[in-house]
Amino acid sequence: MLLGAYTSAIGAGLSCPDWPTCYGTWVPFLHSGIVASSSYSTLQIFAEWAHRGLAMTAGFIILGTTIGAWLAYPNNRLVTWSATGALVLLPTQVLLGGLTVTENLQPFVVTTHLGVATLILLCLLTTFLTGWLSSREKMQYEQVP
Hints:
By secondary structure, the protein is mainly alpha-helical. The N and C termini lie far apart (46 Å). 74% of the residues lie in helices and 0% in strands. The chain crosses the membrane at residues 49-71, 78-96, 108-133. Its EC number is 1.3.-.-.
């Protein structure tokens, strides 16, 4: 979310003009002519490209977190369903990320993209905190003679 905010703040939201690729390629920096001919700076292109890459990595981490929640806490509905909630919201977030570019940063789309990111963060925080507190309670219970 911070990298997305930074990307927006430096005016780089459209520095990769297509989606899901960036200038028709997955790694625009391997093509020196792309960066050289762009009206955006190398930093702006890198920020947008890195935001997309980090978001993809976060998506895989969310998938792993959901699987882990169901394996480690199968009887804790708050842990499992908050993790599942984050995973269910993920395709919407990806779609909104694409629409942010293809719809030229329409305020409603950008705001909704941030809102869904906030909901995903809330789900993941709930997963973590509930799981952590549940583990602490279990450890305390096991230590009592």
